[in-house]
Amino acid sequence: MRLFEAIIDANHRAVAGDASAGLHPAEFADALPVIALTCIDPRLNAFFPNALALPAEEFIWLRNAGNIVTSTLSSTLRSLALACAVKGGREIAIIGHSDCQVAKTTTTVLLDKLKALGVDRSRLPDNLNEFFGTFGSERQNIIRACDFVRNSPLIGPKIPVHGLLLDVETGKLDWIVNGYETLQAQVPPGLPGSGALPKFGAALESLGAFKEFAMGEMKFPEMKIGEAALPGKPLAERIHVVPPPTVALPKTSPPPIRPGKAPLPPPIRPAADLRRK
Ligand SMILES: [Zn+2]
């Protein structure tokens, strides 16, 4: 079982009431840490990383309003690329959520809200949907984000890019884009760095151009979302990480930590003093 197969399995078992649901992070060391992009919605604070049954140190958390990715070279993609390169992230998950307010905010409402904040329409870009990357369907937004990340020249071809949707009522995760499948489709076995992979120049040409999505190209999940909200404790409390085997602590105790004195900065000379020299 691969990491996200184990994550989904643990999540679904926890949502179904299995108190022992979890996973051993040590068994998936090659796939950790995970980089997740989620929305800024505060309701998500209690769900992560618990909903993935991962310990906090294996969870690199990026957030933006609506978990939106606007292009293959957007600032979010730069952060994802650095999270892979600098922090060693091995798998990426774009995690949308149900009842996202970004999806529910129309352009007219957005303009009204911005106006109320003193933001003048004339100073905004003409195409607000394109600029903010706003969306009407949480699922399509996840698919679009995965597509941009998968096709970004900044992301290595061996990094799986998953798309998940979290139910904010139950904590259940639905797998919208299976990153292992798209990985196989991109790079056939034995052909690392296939010529079919996007090049930086091509991506640069499309920078700023909003990518249209034909319905015929849409990928839809195989499973339906569980409808019933489960009673009992919130998922954040029910799902848990199976702890790794106890690590023996060294017998010698570490030296006591003493509060140190903060070094003082050099005295600031009056400006007149500096001018004289
Ligand atoms: Zn949201």
Bound molecules: zinc ion
> What CATH architecture do you see?
3-Layer(aba) Sandwich
Indicate the low-confidence ranges by residue numbers.
191-197, 205-232, 244-251, 253-257, 269-277
Beta-strand percent range:
5-15%
Q: What integer value in Å does the Rg equal? A: 23 Å
How many β-strand runs? 5
Question: N-to-C terminal Cα separation, in Å?
Answer: 71 Å
H and E order: HEEHEHHHHEEHHHH
Q: Give the count of helical stretches.
A: 10
Largest sheet: 5 strands, mixed
| Superfamily (CATH H level) name | Carbonic anhydrase
Q: Roughly how much helix do the residues carry, as a percent range?
A: 25-40%
The structure class reads alpha/beta
Q: Mean pLDDT score, rounded?
A: 80
CATH level 1 name: Alpha Beta
CATH overall fold name: Beta-carbonic Anhydrase, Chain A
Task: Explain what the structure shows.
The structure is a single chain. With 277 residues, this protein is of the alpha/beta class. It contains ten helices and five strands. It has a single domain (3-276), classed as Beta-carbonic Anhydrase, Chain A, CATH 3.40.1050.10. Strand 4 and strand 5 (173-177) form a beta hairpin. Zinc ion binds next to helix 3. The site of zinc ion has 7 residues, from helix 3.
Key traits:
alpha/beta, 10 helices, Beta-carbonic Anhydrase, Chain A, 10% strand, 5-stranded mixed sheet, 29% helix, single chain, 277 residues
Helix and strand arrangement:
Layout: H1 3-15, E1 34-38, E2 59-63, H2 75-85, E3 91-97, H3 101-104, H4 107-116, H5 128-132, H6 138-150, E4 161-166, E5 173-177, H7 179-186, H8 200-205, H9 235-238, H10 271-276
Parallel strand pairs: 1-2, 1-3, 3-4
Antiparallel strand pairs: 4-5
Bound molecules: zinc ion.
